[in-house]
Structure formats: C-alpha cells, structure tokens
Design goal:
The complex is a heterodimer of chains A (117) and B (378). In chain A, 37% of the residues lie in helices and 31% in strands. Chain A has 117 residues and is of the alpha/beta class. The longest helix of chain A has 15 residues. In chain B, 16% of the residues lie in helices and 38% in strands. The chains are: A alpha/beta (117), B alpha/beta (378).
Chain lengths: 117, 378
C-alpha cells in the first residue's frame, strides 16, 4: 500500500511517495506516475523516495519504465533523496546512475528554483 | 468459456525504426525519440487479467483462451504472483517471434543522431557508428566504434571509444565512466572515470578527472588533469609554446567535482541573495514573500557551506596517501606545466627529460627517472 502526494510547481511536479513499493503496488503506481509524467505542461517530475518502506525490483521497474517512456516525450523523472535501502537496491540492480538524483532538498531548489516557490 | 487478457507494461507495437519526436503543443523534441524500452531484472512486463477487467475496447490480439504468457528469453514468472510476467535480466523488452523477450546487449547499428535521438539504456551498449554533436548516450558498459564529437556519453562501468573524443564545434563533449575509460585521443573535452584513464595518443586542451591513474602514451598539453593516483605521459607533457597545462594529483576527483558543483550552487544563491537583500534585506524575515525567500536562501547557503567544509576536511585526510603519487614523464616536459600533489605546488621552469615528480615531505621534487621506469608504461 502506498500514497503519492503531489505538489504542483511551474513546469514541475514534486511527488512524495509514502509506503511500500512492491509488486502488488505496481499497477496502481505505474498508472499514477505515468499520469503525472505525461500531464500537459510538465517538463519534469521529481519523485521523493525518502519515505519508501519496503521496495523490490518490480517497484524500481516502474521507475525505469516510466522514465524511459517520459524521455520519449521530452520529459524527465528525477529522484529526490532516495532512502538508503532504495539506494542499495538501485546499486544492486546496477541502475543507480540511470536517474538524475538530488541528494537534498537544497540541491533540488538550487537546480530547479521553481520548486522553492 | 472464460477468457483472459494480456495487459502489457511496455509498448508491444514498439518499432525502433519508426520513432517519432516527443513534445507537445506543436513543439517537437528531436532528441527524445525513445529508442529503446528498458527493463530491469524483476520488472513487470505483462499481467494476465480477466477479460472483463480489460476496459471498453480490449485489443483482440491479446485476448487469451488460456492464461498462458508468451514467455521468451530472459523472462520469468514469479511463483508467488503467477499472473505477472517479469524480466529476468536488465535489457530491452520487445516481441520476438511472438514471444516477450528481453535482450541484454543493445547494438546500435548507426550513428547516434537525429535517427535515434538520445539513448539511455540499463544494459550494455555497442554503437557501431559515432555519437554526434548534441546527443547523449548512457548505459552500463559502452563501446563506441566511431567517434564522440560534441556528444555526451556516460557508462556505468567501462567506456571504450575506438575513434576518439573531440569537443566539436560547440567544444562541448563529456565522457564519463564508472570504471575505466579508454580512447585514442581526447581533444577539448571533459572526461571522467572512477578508475584508470588510458589515452593511446594525445590528450589536448581537456579537463580530465581520473579516479585512479592517468596514462597518456604520447602527448598531453593544455587543460587540467586531475588524478587520484599517478600520471604517466609517454612522449611529451606541455609544449614548446608553453601552453598552460595543469596536473593535480592526490585528491579524489569525485570530491573535487562535488566541490565544484556545490561552489556553483553557492555562487548562484549568493547572486540571488544579493539581489533580494537590496529589496528586502532591511525587513524582518517574516514580513513578506521576498523576505521569507531571502531567509530560506540564507539558510540553504549556510547548509551548503557546511557541506563544502566537510568535503574539504575529508579531502585533507588523504594527505598521507599523496606520497604515493607520481608524475612520470619518460619523454619531455616543457615549461608551462603546473603540478600540484595535494597542497604542494611546482611550476616547471625549463624543459626536462625522463623525469619523475613526487612528494617529499611537503614539497614536490624532480628526480631523474630510474632505468627500470623507462621500459614500463604505468
């Protein structure tokens, strides 16, 4: 089970993920993430992964699939402060460099000033 | 009879030969064509659901009489969730002879250019052509059989470039390897590797960060070379014209890069703070939006400065390691070369041949190369 809290900024949506990111969550998470990524006027979606509980590779697969699809539409998925066990899993499946990642809210606001408003 | 539907989590009709630019409202992003459909080990590729849950107009091609997946190579069914088909390896997913298939090696049998767009891939990639100006490529291990000319290439592991790397007209080329980087030449580019960098011929006017050692078999001049370990230049370091060539050894280039990044953000924030100060510097922090923003920015900058100081502190812990760093030049080294090992600094004031530079106490000393060094390249 999970919840996705959305904060809208100019051209950017920040999504805060709370809960598990496991195989049973895939259909719903996949749908919701793609809806945000392909929403009109959005250039990038920042996904805050600091409050993810349990995660498996099917959950990360949603990120890979959504990121690939969004790149095909000229948009990008950016990760924000992934929790240590998420970072661990990203490394384990050898995709830690696949996503642009911000390690802190300060870094995010420095690079995407719209998110500070 | 009960019927089922095969719901896909990738595009089953994907055709890399007929890509269309992304973009909306009449805009067109020719760099984002989505050349490949990535999948990682464990990713859901397809799901079998009852036909009645498939929505109003299910695709007749994917209506099944029996709940059976068209499983191909590198796919698997999780016994705990038998209605999901998963990828069993990192790669790209597509239909091959009616089976859902994942392939780990992506062969791009052309240049990376307007036909392909940028390519971001989770497996290994072999590009049989060149990476053209303005295009980006990212994968695990990457081999480029042509050149990189004004493009960006990132490899999670090793990066092998057969044709060399050139800055191109915009002089903006970046190659970044998580492991080793091998190329015949670098010219007006930025190159990074967490492991060794080996350049078969020349490294000219480039900014280089090597996480281990740097080897240039022939000549290197112009630009900045950062290496954590040692540097070897076979024939010539610097040139007769005295082109500034800076070599920094002993500091972790990754931390140096991070410091540069933080410095950049701090500089941007300082500029904004100066501007906001003029408008709302005299007001208490909670007066209006501008004063609140000013307060928040000051706080962010304070934290970044603290992080920068921590990084510098970590860098200075490496100082005992720096005594192992060497600059080896069995050929010639010319004036114009500046060498730093840790905090020690040396400017080459005349031409030398067959020398080794190393740190003794807190100074860099130049020594004539031992005979045993002359036959080796590292």
């Amino acid at each position: 089970m999970f919840t996705l809290q959305a904060e809208s900024h100019k051209n950017v949506t920040v999504l805060r993920y709370l809960g598990d990111m496991l195989l049973p969550d895939v259909p719903q998470f996949s749908r919701q993430l793609e809806t945000h990524l392909l929403a009109p006027g959005i250039r990038q979606v920042v996904l805050d992964l600091s409050h993810v509980n349990k995660v498996d590779t099917s959950g990360l697969g949603v990120l890979v699939s959504a990121s690939t699809k969004s790149r095909g539409h000229g948009r990008r998925l950016v990760l924000l402060t992934p929790a240590p066990h998420v970072v661990e899993l990203l490394k384990k499946v050898e995709i830690e460099g696949f996503f642009p990642t911000f390690d802190s809210e300060e870094e995010l606001k420095g690079f995407i000033p719209d998110t500070a408003d | 009879m009960v019927q089922y539907y095969l719901r896909h989590y990738f595009n089953p009709d994907f055709d890399y030969l007929h890509l269309k630019p992304g973009g909306e409202n009449g805009s067109s992003d020719v760099y984002s064509l989505g050349y490949v459909q990535n999948a990682i080990n464990g990713q859901v590729l397809a799901e079998i659901i009852p036909l009645e849950d498939a929505g109003p107009e299910p695709d007749p091609r994917f209506i099944l009489d029996k709940p059976r997946f068209p499983t191909g190579p590198n796919t698997r069914i999780d016994p705990h969730y038998p209605n999901y088909l998963l990828a069993a390896a990192n790669g790209y997913v597509f239909y091959l002879d009616g089976k859902i298939t994942v392939k780990c090696l992506l062969n791009v049998r052309q240049d990376v250019s307007f036909q392909t767009g940028n390519i971001f891939f989770v497996g290994d990639m072999a590009i049989h052509g060149s990476v053209r100006a303005g295009f980006s490529v990212q994968a695990n291990n990457v081999r480029i059989m042509g050149m990189v000319e004004g493009g960006v290439v990132r490899a999670r592991r090793n990066l092998l470039i057969d044709g060399g790397v050139r800055g191109g007209a915009g002089q903006h080329s970046l190659v970044d390897a998580g492991g080793k980087l091998l190329s015949p030449f670098l010219e007006k580019v930025e190159a990074r590797a967490r492991d060794n960098i080996v350049i078969e011929k020349s490294c000219l006017y480039s900014t280089v960060y090597a996480g281990a050692s740097m080897v240039v078999r022939e000549q290197a001049y112009g630009g900045i070379i950062n290496a954590y370990g040692s540097m070897y230049v076979g024939r010539q370091l610097g040139n007769k014209a005295g082109i500034p060539t800076r070599v920094y050894l002993g500091y972790d280039p990754l931390s140096i890069r991070q410091l540069e990044k933080i410095d950049h953000i701090i500089a941007q924030q300082s500029q904004t703070i100066t501007h906001l100060n003029a408008v709302a510097g005299h007001l208490p922090p909670e007066t209006n939006d501008v004063s609140r923003k000013l307060q928040a920015l000051r706080e962010q900058r304070k934290q970044l400065i603290r992080r920068r100081d921590e990084l510098w502190a970590r860098l200075s812990m490496d100082e005992s390691y720096m005594h192992n760093c060497r600059l080896l030049v069995p050929g010639r080294i010319y004036p114009g070369v500046e060498l730093s090992i840790g905090r020690a600094f040396l400017t080459i004031d005349r031409m030398y041949e067959k020398i080794t530079c190393r740190l003794v106490e807190h100074d860099i000393v130049i020594e004539h190369m031992q005979h045993s060094h002359l036959g080796t390249s590292q």
